[in-house]
Amino acid sequence: MAYGITLQNDLGETITEYEDVLFEMDSGVTRRLATLPSIGFDKHLFYNWSTYTGSNPKVPRFEQIAKGTKWITTGRTQDLYNYYRVLTGNDDWPLNTFPFVKMPSEGIWGMLGVPFRYPSNGPRVMMWAVGTDATGLPFKMAGDNLPATLSGDYGMQIRKPGGAVAFDSRAKMISLAGHFYMSQADMVAVLENGATRTYTISSPAPGSFVCAPHYTSFLYTGSGAAWVPRLRQIDDTAFLLDRIAIAGLRPGLVPDVGYAGAFFHDTTVMVARNI
Fold it and tell me: Quick check: 133 and 59 in contact, CB under 8 A?
């Protein structure tokens, strides 16, 4: 005999695991990082590297996932002694919060969170950016915490054993269409050999939002070539990984000509529907 309550989201999917519900905590549009000092600043450090002044205007850069006004970034001068601190504009998110960014046609080549603690032993927070040549990408911040404010005297709440609210029908949820895993071996094949990899999800997600925390692989050959892995959505259920050249990229502190460096990192990508 069937009985009881069946809980569904707005797509008609049955929700059973309340511990794992991802709520949409905030949303906004990414912004281009401010231009950092062009002389003496270590722009090749990943989360600081925002602009390149060479002849190619299509060099990918980082877009901030931000709604606030301040973000402290740091770097050293070319002599490695003097230390700079720069306000480039960002706000912070709880450590258990993750960004979903609308996948642009140009694709993304990185997604990085920078942990930060406020002065006087303040709270630890995360600040996020996404590597892309696109600008102004819609984003959604997701987490298992409820949004700060919920309106309306209606709906249903489900609580965890400790009393915390695990589900509130008034809160909008992130609707996951699927996920896939980009292995370290895939990154090596793509960056070193120019291979491509295709990943699929079972449920269609046109115009998807993706979350790929700490997606940071790169290859610098030492002869002037530098590559990063680019991820693009090629149809409603498929994503393509290939490589693109990225001028001005360096993997460490002011490497000399002939210095080669690489970082091959595996990444799990969560795909959310555009709702």
Answer: yes
